[in-house]
Amino acid sequence: MEHIRTTKVEQVKLLDRFSTSNKSLTGTLYLTATHLLFIDAHQKETWILHHHIASVEKLALTTSGCPLVIQCKNFRTVHFIVPRERDCHDIYNSLLQLSKQAKYEDLYAFSYNPKQNDAERLRGWELIDLAEEYKRMGVPNSNWQLSDANRDYKICETYPRELYVPRIASKPIIVGSSKFRSKGRFPVLSYYHQSKELNAMANRAAGKGYENEDNYSNIRFQFVGIENIHVMRSSLQKLLEVNGTKGLSVNDFYSGLESSGWLRHIKAVMDAAIFLAKAIAVESASVLVHCSDGWDRTSQVCSLGSLLLDPYYRTIRGFMVLIEKDWISFGHKFSERCGHLDGDPKEVSPVFTQFLECVWHLTEQFPQAFEFNEAFLLQIHEHIHSCQFGNFIGNCQKEREELKLKEKTYSLWPFLLGDQKKYLNPLYSSQSQKSAVLEPNTVSFNFKFWRNMYHQFDRTLHPRQSVFNIIMNLNEQNKQLEKDIKDLESQIKQRKNKQTDGILSKELLNSVRPESPALKATLSLKEQALLPVNDVLRTIEGSSPADNRYSEYADEFSKAEPAVVSLEYGVARMTC
Amino acid sequence: MEFAELIRTGQAQAELLRGPEEPPLRGTLCITGHHLLLSPGPQATPDLWLLLLRNVDSIEKRVAGDSGTITLRCKDLRVLQLDIEGVEATLDIARSIEALSSLESVITSFPFFYRPKGLRLGDAWHFHPPECYYKRVARETNAWRLSEANEDFSLCPSYPRAVIVPRAVDDSALARSARFRQGGRFPVLSYYHAPSGTVLLRAGQPLTGPQKRRCSEDEELLRAVLAGARPGARGFIVDTRSPQAAKQARMSGGGTEPKAAYPGWKRLHRPLERGRPLQESFVRLVEACGDLEQSMDRWLNRLESCRWLSHVKETLSTACLAAQSMEQEGACVLVHGAEGTDSTLLITSLAQLILDPLSRTMAGFQELIEREWVQAGHPFQLRCAHSAFSHARPKHEAPTFLLFLDCVWQLGRQFPLSLEFGEGMLLALFEHAYASPFGTFLCNNEKERCLCEVRTRTHSLWSGLRQPKEQRKLRNPLYVPNPLAIWPSAEPQSLRLWQGLFLRGTHPPEPSEVAWEKVWQIVTDQEKTEGSQPTDSASEPGP
Q1: CA dihedral A491, A495, A497, A501 (to 10 degrees)
Q2: Residue B532 and residue A485: Cβ atoms within 8 Å?
Q3: Where would one find the signal peptide in this protein (chain A) (predicted)?
């Protein structure tokens, strides 16, 4: 690779992000064509995909070496100290090049090879079929039809080829409407709600200005003040600055959370989605959603609204369909918003991350309503930035077709489905979903900082034991046991049938009766053996006082006795 | 009964609203000496609704037309609304509740009248006697002994009769050390950490005063502590006040241990909030939690400015520091602030939960509370006289015990498999500390409890909690004994507001309650299927 000068540097230190005493691990840093890899003395590997790198910073030289700080789009922050400045400089330059590609063809997805043949790859791409999805919704029907107006992307470049419009909307109407809307994004069907009383639908369109009420009959306007992409970008920036602070106090954390405005924005998106869902489900109204271009806030609100209305989207497969439909096909500009290529930094914005966060808040409020768990959301977030799969590359369907993504790259979804077990919510109950429409409460208390997203890689901040894992495990064992019981029961049946043929002896039958004393003995033995389920799950990851910051006060214990030691943060003073 | 004169009305028709999720209840409202009752009539289920009047923290009445409304804000943070027919009836009921809920006499309180079926008086009082623990430590270490020097509470009115002290120190030295410590609280053992051979002690502040007085017996006592641990053991004195506050305390007769007088001991200051500021923090948090309309910014601002979570963080990290000094540094630890009955107990009890797997069991946790809070002389009567809604000027109120429960809740969130008890247990302890039919949290110390004959005339909460029907609410279905120390993270990102408690008045129960029910179901399913498996394997005929 032309950008890589140094491939291996030894004696590199990896600093603990939150340590105030510069605790570190020493190891070797490797630079490959796709990843930066750090292997510490315990052979623990830290892999960083070049595409995940949001920024690289070289700090002023210190006595121990040259500090290199890397911020990632998946919110990992690593702080290396490279002994020699020249090595640091080489790596820094390489990473600058490698993390910002100029051409789509240089993205990881075009070289990623999971060892599948063409047929498998194509099947993967066909896994999510939007035509099938519209059929599921109940369109086309007497009111809605498939329009071929955009078959060649002539009316709107950022819409998909296949669009559903009202039957009475003739081609001239569509063309006229598209000329009146920003980027030709005329109103089209996003979700068709089937309910017992009446049918209703949510559409989408682009604005720039808003409709004059006098010209539209039987229509009500609702403005739901969600801020634009620039406000959202700087809000996240502030949030990350706050929670990346060393030695953060509770007060600074909450005042930073407040001034970043992040949770306020999340609540605004959620409120808009609830408004939409209510209008459709309760008032049986049709809703047209738009912002200025109709691919950011509109996508957020339409997809969240659909999620509230339709339990299908709360399943693993349904959620993939939802993302394909409301985000990918309708032209959310993933490559620009995620900064896949070296482009305009002002186009980058965490719009999709906000959507995932809203979904996470819903899973917190409705722990049994979603088939998937938090890990699923985190994994999707990982891959909108990884450029490892083709799904999120490009900014609209037309561009994706031109890039021939389906021929040259793989789809993410079959890989997630193959790993489905990891992403299942053990508490999911599909029966309780019959009543369907979710009505979240958006009182301010319900919005919390999403630690597992923004501190995903800061192990010491997390709970040390996972309830989800253990329940998952119990559930699986229950299933296995139930299956065993069924098998055994059928065996008994078979034997009994044989017995009527005179094959089984009497003693054998007796032993089946539960009063048997021998049986009781097995029962009590069994109970003892029941306890530990899986020791791997019981290990308490990361629970050592050394991992936590209070330990650094104690570092002072072992020092020689000074007269007065004042520690950092001014809270703890130790007089001797 | 002497309450009769305080009851202004016999009964009235009323409708009761109990919160956002629960349906209203209609029926006849009555007042007795200790309770407010609503009887919905013969067909209805549940047939009777009952509120302990002692639970009422504040009362608000409003009349309009020919009916009235009474809003009761309870010490357990629930909010109840009663719509009552008749203006006179409303006013009478309100006055009666006001009078009866503010009675201060201990021996006429409800626990002295409560006689539940299935419990015998005096049954469980010795269920968790601290002496058992002390005897065990004395046996295991050979360096400690049980002393009856405080048999008549003359050395220290807030200590129990039996205390545990270094074997090398005799009772007369204890008496002199007691005179040198605030409230007579001379250093006693709180916990023995067997793996490191170190001990955790607690005391009141030394009364050095402006003249920097010393007490050789007190110094001898702490010297004996180190000598009794492993050779060369060091000690840390964790003072829960700032160095300035500790210095200031000298002016009023208190102070800190001078370094030269206590060789081998090193002092650390970790200031913790206490008293009125802590109570105000609690009041402001509950106030903020009562506002459903506030904007996100306002809510976050109030959550920050009430400082409650800061107190949780400081408490947890101080407890970790104490635990770490013992486990990692092999040092003995003495904790004290001023009186040694509040923040001191917070730290000693939390440090034990972190280090000691036994204290994380159902029985062990009850034993811990009995030993480190009730018997150790936390003044429950004074601290829990009012909760967050009371308009009365706070005098001695402070939610120290609640802060402890919150810290335990945070531990439970970070180690969801390691505590045998669940959130329900912590909520129950909170409720009973403020208003209870049981006698456990009555009075301020053991001496007062003896005078009031609490042990013989009331039932213990611990026997109440042992009732089988309570277990599902109190236990953690996922518990697995964990022999290790559990080190929590005290970073702000790792701490969370205890919604199940602070939002119970305004917010429908967390949906996770439903999910928790499902967890129980999965665990019991597991037990059932596991249990039924042998039936089939036994029935499987051998080859």
Answers
A1: 160
A2: yes
A3: none
Beta-carbon contacts of B7 under 8 Å, excluding residues fewer than 6 positions away, are B31, B32, B33, B96, B100
CA atoms within 13 A on the CB side of A65: 21
| A534, closest residue in chain B (CA to CA) | B480
Binding residues of A for substrate: 228-229, 291-297
Residues 6+ apart with CB under 8 A from B344: B202, B203, B240, B335, B336, B337
Taking CB atoms and an 8 Å limit, are A504 and B541 in contact across chains?
Answer: yes
DSSP 8-state class, residue A207: -
DSSP B228-297: HSSTT--EEEEESS-HHHHHHHGGGT-----GGGSTTEEEEE-----HHHHHHHHHHHHHHHT-SS--HH
For A479, the enclosing helix (H) or strand (E) is helix A467-500
Of A463, A471, A489, the CB nearest to B522: A471
Starting at the earlier edge strand, list the strands of the sheet with B56-64.
B49-52, B35-39, B25-31, B11-17, B79-85, B67-74, B56-64
* pLDDT tens per residue, range A346-368: 999 999 999 999 999 999 999 88
Q: Give the residue numbers of A marked as catalytic.
A: 291
Chain B CB contacts of A532 under 8 Å are 480
Read off the pLDDT of each residue in A115-141 and give the average, rounded to a whole number.
Answer: 92
- Cα angle A369, A375, A379 (rounded to 5 degrees) comes to 120
pLDDT for the residue numbered B473: 87
Those residues whose C-beta lies under 8 Å from the C-beta of residue A333, and which sit 6 or more positions away, are: A295, A347, A395, A396
Rounded Cα distance, A368 and A426, in Å? 8
Give B155-183 pLDDT, tens digit per residue.
999 999 999 999 999 999 999 999 999 99
B29 to chain A, closest Cα gap in Å: 33
Distance between CA atoms of residues B191 and B349, nearest Å: 9
**Which residue among B236, B492, B503 places its CB closest to the CB of A445?**
B503
Beta bridge partners of B38: B29, B49
Per the document, the length of chain A is 576
- In contact, B104 and B57? CB cutoff 8 Å: no
Q: How large is the average pLDDT for residues B262-274?
A: 95
Alpha helices in A40-104 (DSSP H): 85-99
CB contact under 8 A, B314 and A571: yes
| Cα→Cα distances A430→A137, A419, A435, Å | 19, 20, 10
Cα distance between residue A566 and residue A564, in whole Å: 6
**B243 chain-A contacts, CB cut-off 8 A:** 573, 575
- Opening angle at CA A395, ends A392 and A397, nearest 5: 85
pLDDT for the residue numbered A92: 95
Tokens 């920024």, residue located: A55
Contact A276, A299 (CB under 8 A): no
Q: Which residues of A touch B485 (CB under 8 A)?
A: 543, 545
What is the band of A543 on the pLDDT scale with cuts at 50, 70, 90? low
- Cβ separation A261–B515 shorter than 8 A: no
pLDDT digits (tens, 9 = 90+) for B237-252: 999 999 999 999 999 9
Which range of A388-397, B82-91, B503-512 scores highest in mean pLDDT? It is A388-397
Instruction: Give the annotated binding-site residues of A.
Output: 228-229, 291-297
Calculate how close chain A gets to B469, using CA atoms only, in Å.
22
Q: How far is B360 from chain A (nearest CA, A)?
A: 15
User: Contact A156/A185 with Cβ under 8 angstroms?
Assistant: yes
Predicted complex ipTM: 0.90
Strands B25-31, B56-64: pairing is unpaired
Token output for B28: 């006849």
For the stretch A397-442, pLDDT in tens is 999 999 999 999 999 999 999 999 899 998 898 776 556 899 999 9
